[in-house]
Amino acid sequence: MNFRRIQGIFLIAFVILDIVLVISFFWGFWRVQSNSGQSVSQQAMLLRELKTDSITVPKLSNHQPRGYYISVNSSTDLGDEVTSLTRQSAYWSGTQITSTFNTALANQKSTIKSWLRSNSRIAHGQSYQVNQDFSTKSRLVYTQMIDGIPVLDATGRIQFRVSGQKLTGYTQTYLKGIKVLRQQVSAISSQQAVAVLYRHNEIPSNSKVIWLQYGFSKVSSSDNQDIYAPIWEAKVRDRSNNKTTYLRVNAITGTIIQTND
């Protein structure tokens, strides 16, 4: 009798547990759907407000990339690397390498790729990827990548000089001694970054956000170390006066970073 009673108690307990799990599952599913619906609604509202103010933006996303602070050596010496470079005349100025090719290169991806792969031609070349947003008719820009994230400052960059269909030389900066300072967190999305800039009247009416980029930027210095934070950078053109500005938002704190641009 006691055994049957215990058996019944366990059966009831398992039934209650199953009910709780089912309820928890549907409650979690409902919350995910609800949050997703809120995100879509917020984006729609933001786009309506931007349209009212004649502001056009590229495609925005709710995706929140990973973000973390890093430290790098405040002084990077590439003097030793310069002495081993070939097929060019190059020197180290104390802040960057300046190079002129012995023979101009064809402005082709395959040619550039082969040079970046060779440390005897470009130091640490495989650490860089092309950045079309930063490039112009007279310069082709490659940005240093840190764990798949570009350095948006000029402190980690190769700028090829373009003349017609040829590359005549380049300047190069490079970040060394990279250390992660804090655990990864979810950074703000591109949509949230635009919302921050818009709510703080940083984006004028009748303007166009030409591009948005996520990457690292220097925010402070301490004890021979430079501190870099993940940011969103936006290039904005005011159509009323054709003025271009570059706006930045700290992607972890969501605060606006003041620039001199």
UniProtKB/TrEMBL annotation:
<feature type="transmembrane region" description="Helical">
    <location>
        <begin position="9"/>
        <end position="30"/>
    </location>
</feature>
<protein>
    <recommendedName>
        <fullName>Regulatory protein YycH-like domain-containing protein</fullName>
    </recommendedName>
</protein>
<keyword id="KW-1133">Transmembrane helix</keyword>
<dbReference type="Pfam" id="PF09648">
    <property type="entry name" value="YycI"/>
</dbReference>
<keyword id="KW-0472">Membrane</keyword>
<keyword id="KW-0812">Transmembrane</keyword>
<dbReference type="InterPro" id="IPR018604">
    <property type="entry name" value="YycI-like"/>
</dbReference>
<feature type="domain" description="Regulatory protein YycH-like">
    <location>
        <begin position="38"/>
        <end position="252"/>
    </location>
</feature>
<dbReference type="GO" id="GO:0016020">
    <property type="term" value="C:membrane"/>
</dbReference>
